[in-house]
Amino acid sequence: MGQRESAVEDMVNPWQGRRVFLTGHTGFKGGWLALWLARRGAEIRGYSLDPETVPNLFTAASVAQGLDDVRGDVRDYARLESAITEFHPEVVFHLAAQPLVRRSYADPLGTYSTNIMGTAHVLEAVRKAPSVRAVVSVTTDKCYRNQEWVWPYRETDPLGGYDPYASSKACAEIVSAAYRSSFFPVDRLQEHHVALATARAGNVIGGGDWSEDRLIPDLIRGFQEKRPVIIRRPTAIRPWQHVLESLHGYITLAEQLLAERAQFASAFNFGPVDNDEWPVERIVTTAAQMWGEGASWVRDAEPSVHEDHVLRLDVSKARSELGWQPRLRIETALEWTIAWYRAAQQGADMRQETLAQIARYQDLAPWAVSNLPATERGNIP
């Protein structure tokens, strides 16, 4: 967004004073979203379990400042319903989940209960909260029935999932669609005033993620410990994007839902431009070069559990209907990510560092990066 657009946004800010209920605020994506919404003046109540890792973004970036921090499990319906109804939110962002593929093999029941029943609990609590106007339920790009083909998946493609994680997120999509049809029908939006959408984002990267079995956190741990990082499937292709790209999509979607524009109460993909769907080996090699200090990686001879090889997203719906499009090329997303972890390593104020990246992202024109020739992409800050 350019300076003129930033000025317009400051004058017409739909988030100033807006009451937002956010599940998963102690997580990676939830922490970034909480900071962004707070920066824009929203009144936020976060509902989540304690942060899972040490360190974590929630603590490092002091996410708790400026929001009502409530600890709870989305599987605890009574506590969740009370937290929502007492707060009287207008907007609900549902991000709480068990988000890890390999953990879903170790704990399938926990994955299913969190991702399916947790989603049902949130939507049931929304049904009983007359204040709610907009709901964005976040799932994943892995909710599609993966055909291992080269074509990107569209929102109309069949849902599915080989592993417990992917299938649980496909089920969460089905639960959301059922609640929309049964209780928040689009053709009666002017009567019930609850617009419900789902968001399917690609593989997000960015500072502050220390999760187990995720590519960037694994790389950073290895780089900092000066050991070769073991990479499971270097030829796998994923729709990589900076975390701010997907969050920008969620926020934009919520704004349309608040305006009671019925056509946006549906599913939306958020992913990179086509040629940013890099194989893992290109991601790790580029990240190692950016880190320096002899950073390196090796291939895992026994990658264990099944994981999809090729996954691409078609984001034409978000681009044409929402006016959303990626602002950062993957090289720049990696640069921002490495810079964040470097700053944390050097003891910087990570709340200010994180807010600075959010501000920097907002000041980018949507077309500033995606339309540049490849030879110039590396010069984008």
Topology:
Blueprint: H1 3-11, E1 19-23, H2 28-39, E2 43-48, H3 57-60, E3 68-71, H4 77-87, E4 91-94, H5 101-106, H6 108-127, E5 134-138, H7 164-182, H8 189-192, E6 195-201, E7 203-205, H9 215-225, E8 229-231, E9 240-242, H10 243-258, E10 267-270, H11 280-291, E11 297-299, H12 316-322, H13 330-345, H14 350-362, H15 367-370
Parallel strand pairs: 1-2, 1-4, 2-3, 4-5, 5-6, 6-10, 7-9, 8-11
Could you please describe the fold and organization of this structure?
- Strand 1 (19-23), helix 2 (28-39) and strand 2 (43-48) form a beta-alpha-beta unit.
- The two termini are 14 Å apart.
- It is built from 15 helices and 11 strands.
- The chain has helices at residues 3-11, 28-39, 57-60, 77-87, 101-106, 108-127, 164-182, 189-192, 215-225, 243-258, 280-291, 316-322, 330-345, 350-362, 367-370, and strands spanning 19-23, 43-48, 68-71, 91-94, 134-138, 195-201, 203-205, 229-231, 240-242, 267-270, 297-299.
- With 381 residues, the chain is α/β, with parallel strands linked by helices.
- The strands form 3 sheets. The protein has a 7-stranded parallel β-sheet, with helices on both faces.
- The radius of gyration is 20 Å and the shape is globular.
DSSP, total strands: 11
Taking Cα atoms only, what radius of gyration do you get, to the nearest Å? 20 Å
Shape category: globular
How large is the count of helical segments? 15
Biggest beta sheet attributes: 7 strands, parallel
Percent range for β-strand residues: 5-15%
**SSE ordering:** HEHEHEHEHHEHHEEHEEHEHEHHHH
Distance between the termini: 14 Å
Low-confidence stretches: 1-11, 367-381
Strand order of the largest sheet: 3-2-1-4-5-6-10
Structural class: alpha/beta
Report mean pLDDT, rounded to a whole number.
91
Helix content: 40-55%
